[in-house]
């Protein structure tokens, strides 16, 4: 990715999809070129959390909401140390942000972090194209000396695909760190960082949990060196079929019977640890308005998603696994995609979506309480 940050507002920009479809607009953020997987997010708010979610590493995010940047950028809502999206696509960027917490415009933040974006694009037409043809590679090019269309398309088609990508180690912490419990400490949790969002250990800390966040390269011995009451596997980017190390570590946790909770990528890791396969969705689930049913209670939740892969597990029966019986606990009501798993003979469960949901909704926050209950039961 090559970038410049000067005078982007009136600079021409071009978005090129790998199937040859082209959209023209204006530069937004940094000027230059970038490549990634084109995906769309249906969230109408929370763009700062989306941009800083490590699960979006190597993806170019198309915002379906037409107006983006209305509340600017603040210093409190980032989910990690930087913006992770490879590129950003919006229709009508806000000219002036309006929020008492805003410190700078979204355009300024994108430029400062070298994120190439494009505005003035018909994001409705682009989203429909991706829904019909699926997520695909894309390039954004901006500047006063753009390459010809054939050259741009050739560069897009040379970019790496998301299928087969092993990315967790690129976004995870390199050194372990601790998020202390708020108030009285009740439990210790070892959290394997595969691309963790900052709000996740915070939600656990609210419940009296001291969270030891470990690198993606952590071993089973590293996990148990902190004497955990529970083990957590986080969200993260890439293809779960490449995550053999994380699967091995999770199997070690399951063998010991320690309470286990996984989110997003962690759900896919649990699926693989139990012997299920994973597959790439046509265009994935991204946004903050996805309906999911908790099959253990019958309750329907509105949930936040960011996943392009899913677990291939049967919805209509209990499955026998090397670690006892397992079942699908949550399902997406839009397309019947597996959104959660639970073991019936060991204290382990996972969900494919984001119960921490800093920008909302908060329907699924009870899952952290369910994790606490598992640890209480184990201790008793």
Distance separating the two termini: 53 Å
Largest sheet: 11 strands, mixed
Q: How big is the Rg?
A: 21 Å
Taking all residues together, what is the mean pLDDT? 95
Overall form:
globular
Q: How many helices in DSSP terms?
A: 10
Uncertain runs: none
Task: Report the β-strand fraction as a percent range.
Answer: 25-35%
Query: Percent range for helical residues?
Result: 10-25%
- Counting helices, strands and paired strands, the structural category is alpha/beta
Total beta strands: 21
Spell out the blueprint of helices and strands.
Elements lengths: L1 E3 L7 E6 L4 E8 L1 E11 L5 H5 L7 E5 L3 E2 L18 E3 L2 E2 L12 H7 L3 E4 L3 H11 L2 E7 L6 H10 L9 H4 L5 E3 L7 E6 L6 H7 L3 E6 L5 H5 L5 E4 L10 H13 L3 E4 L1 H9 L3 E18 L5 E13 L6 E3 L2 E9 L5 E6 L4 E4 L14 H14 L1
Parallel strand pairs: 4-5, 5-7, 6-8, 7-9, 12-13, 12-14, 14-15, 15-21
Antiparallel strand pairs: 1-4, 2-3, 2-10, 3-9, 4-10, 11-13, 16-17, 16-19, 18-19, 19-20, 20-21
Helix pairs in contact: 8-9
Concise account of the structure shown:
22% of the residues lie in helices and 33% in strands.
Keywords:
380 residues, alpha/beta, eleven-stranded mixed sheet, seven-stranded mixed β-barrel, 10 helices, 33% strand
How would you describe this structure to a colleague?
There is one protein chain. This protein is α/β, with parallel strands linked by helices and 380 residues long. The protein is built from ten helices and 21 strands. It starts with a strand and ends with a helix. Helix 6 links the parallel strand 12 and strand 13. The mean pLDDT is 95. The strands form three sheets. Strands 11, 12, 13, 14, 15, 16, 17, 18, 19, 20 and 21 form an eleven-stranded mixed sheet that branches. A seven-stranded mixed barrel has the order 2-3-9-7-5-4-10. The chain has a two-stranded parallel ribbon with strand order 6-8. It is 22% helix and 33% strand.
């Amino acid at each position: 990715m090559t970038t410049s940050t000067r005078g982007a507002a009136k600079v021409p920009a071009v978005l090129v999809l790998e199937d040859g479809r082209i959209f023209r607009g204006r530069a937004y953020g940094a000027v230059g070129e970038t490549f990634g997987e084109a995906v769309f997010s249906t969230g109408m708010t929370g763009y700062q959390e989306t941009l800083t979610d490590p699960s979006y590493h190597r993806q170019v995010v198309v915002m379906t909401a037409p107006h983006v940047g209305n509340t600017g950028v603040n210093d409190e809502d980032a989910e990690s140390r930087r913006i992770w999206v490879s590129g950003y696509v919006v229709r009508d960027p806000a000219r002036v942000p309006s929020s008492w917490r805003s410190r700078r415009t979204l355009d300024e933040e994108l430029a400062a972090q070298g994120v190439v974006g494009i505005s003035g694009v018909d994001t409705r037409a682009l989203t429909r194209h991706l829904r019909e043809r699926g997520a695909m590679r894309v390039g954004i090019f901006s500047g006063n000396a753009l390459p010809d269309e054939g050259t741009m398309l050739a560069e897009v088609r040379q970019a790496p695909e998301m299928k087969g990508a092993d990315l967790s180690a690129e976004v995870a912490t390199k050194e372990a760190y601790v998020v202390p419990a708020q108030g009285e400490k009740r439990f210790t949790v070892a959290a394997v960082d595969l691309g963790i969002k900052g709000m996740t250990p915070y939600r656990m800390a609210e419940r009296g949990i001291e969270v030891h966040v470990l690198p993606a390269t952590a071993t089973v011995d590293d996990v148990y060196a902190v004497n955990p009451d529970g083990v957590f596997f986080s969200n993260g980017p890439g293809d779960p079929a490449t995550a053999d190390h994380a699967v091995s570590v999770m199997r070690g946790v399951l063998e010991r019977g320690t309470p286990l909770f996984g989110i997003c990528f962690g759900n896919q890791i649990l699926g693989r640890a139990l012997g299920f396969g994973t597959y790439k969705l046509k265009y994935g689930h991204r946004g903050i308005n996805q309906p999911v049913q908790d099959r253990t209670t019958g309750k329907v939740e509105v949930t936040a998603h960011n996943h392009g892969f899913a677990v291939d597990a049967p919805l209509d029966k209990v499955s026998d696994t090397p670690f006892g019986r397992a079942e699908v606990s949550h399902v997406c009501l839009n397309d019947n995609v597996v959104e959660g798993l639970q073991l019936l003979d060991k204290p382990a469960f996972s969900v494919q979506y984001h119960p921490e949901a800093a920008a909302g909704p908060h329907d699924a926050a009870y899952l952290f309480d369910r994790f606490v209950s598992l640890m209480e039961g184990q201790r008793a």
